[in-house]
């Protein structure tokens, strides 16, 4: 009796809650850390990037207008869904990074915990970053945080799951929507993550995932006039500089890459959230 | 309108020198660029000859700031605070002198420089003085960044200086500041105040000059932090030039604020707010309420009241205490206001100004209202930076918000309604950094100020204003 032939998965993009192929029809070969064929991933084009921005823009009013409590619940739900796929992600990380099953499992656990951590921030970041301001006059004066808008994220090439979660979660928990350029070398966990997102009550378009070549796609996003911010964590210094120059055109908020390697297991702090938060100050006179 | 006898403030309180040097390392020094003159825009008379800083002069200023940084950043916060308190006190002591000088150099009415600018300048130094020894409670870490290169505009010369210098010094940074070339005088008087306060040499350096000098400050490799207030166009250039350098940047840029008046608003108060919103400081205000969005049902009545009120505004001598509308700051700015206003007429909007005598000399523009403005008109999209109001109408709150947000800018906005839930609903949806409801153009050192979108990034004022001058608590550097 012959061994059953497995049914392989087609890895596509994740745009507006759907899984389209690249409109360019392009794909590229993804291999394991050992060099074995894993899959043909979609190679996103400029058009895909623009479609993803449209989807993110469309999702922004709903997601930013949802209550912070609701956003926290949804992100917690993502953690639940991720936990239930622990075995699948562990296997994908082993294949992609060549780490041991034990190490890969720990990275998945850390990713789940990271999501839970960020989920709790949804209704607290405003409390620590907002303020009631004691102005010298009879005025009510309140500063509160608001999301920046549509944020492009160049995900780190390493840490295909934990690194990815660590750049997506802080952007969306505050109400931004995003377009993520996944790790070119290890894109498969990002698409599996998209399947998790698609089944987590996260509205379509809040997170859009593009696989392909960051050098090709990121500049389109950096120069896109309907993108409000860009996280260049996964960009090389050269790509980061050219993207920052393009981002100047509509004064995007830019989160620059770190100088050295990032320890994704360390306490992330709040700066990935505050990089894409605006402060709005409302005045009103006080009187009878 | 009642006739008033002129009531000019005396010029004698201020002694303007025939020429001024740069302020570097605690001393006034010659500049190696070609000196330029600063004039009184209300009379076109020359006020003084000003040194221009070349790139080499800027380099000396940055070196002085770098040297001073070592001791200034290591000084206990409580001691830095005392210097800032001293400066605040001297500003109060010399506030009449500074106010007159500001009005002479800038053209703004003495009523505004005396009652708005100067009190806010002193308050800003007091406010940030108090933070200098309390940084560990603010939540942005306590490490200063280093040398701050600061470039400021001509519309609120001394106030913008205060917004830049006070938080920078409180956090332990040293500064090289370039005032606008048309309004350098109060910054140079401030340099004298630093001397009177015995501020250590090099902590504050003032380099005068035009755009080239500003570029030399921004692009100097030993400047760690750039702070700019001015046009979005220059802001873009700066954002591009710092790419890949690791310099932290804050930008406070242009605006095209919507001032929304709902049909249930208190109309007389709204009219005062509209006037204050666009005619304060001749409309030379980045957060000016330059687009009036009025609900259709009350548009005719509101416009009648507004026009009546504009008929009582007095345009003329900035030093006259009765003056409401002073001079336009420069010939170049006047040309820009004229060009955009002409475009408004050509594109089909209807232009109106009250009968208003214009002085023979100097740069003047009457308060102007455009009605029948469409969203596509240049006067509804571009920042005019002058006393020109564009009036649009709306029917529903949803339409008001849609139109208000239909701009690449996002600095400020106004809402007028007696209904609190509608006010908060609207404020929630406006993509702007400052929302004034049932008021306009209020400023306070405790209140963060800054924009969304192409109005720039970073906040000035309040606890938030410290963030721009601290290196952050986490290892990551972000801006």
TrEMBL record, chain A:
Residues in coiled coil: none
One Pfam family cited in the UniProt record for this chain: Aldedh
A single MF term (Gene Ontology): oxidoreductase activity
Entry keywords, A to Z: Oxidoreductase
Ranges for domain Aldehyde dehydrogenase: 23-255
Protein name: Aldehyde dehydrogenase
TrEMBL record, chain B:
Stretches of the chain forming a coiled coil according to its record: none
Example GO molecular function: oxidoreductase activity, acting on the aldehyde or oxo group of donors, NAD or NADP as acceptor
Active site residues of this protein: 252
InterPro entries per the UniProt record, alphabetical: Ald_DH/histidinol_DH (IPR016161), Ald_DH_C (IPR016163), Ald_DH_CS_GLU (IPR029510), Ald_DH_N (IPR016162), Aldehyde_DH_dom (IPR015590)
Keyword annotations from UniProtKB, A to Z: Oxidoreductase
Domain Aldehyde dehydrogenase: 28-470
Entry's family note: Belongs to the aldehyde dehydrogenase family.
PANTHER family found in the cross-reference section: ALDEHYDE DEHYDROGENASE-RELATED (PTHR11699)
Protein name: Aldehyde dehydrogenase
UniProt source species: Acrocarpospora phusangensis
Phylogenetic classification of the source organism: Bacteria, Bacillati, Actinomycetota, Actinomycetes, Streptosporangiales
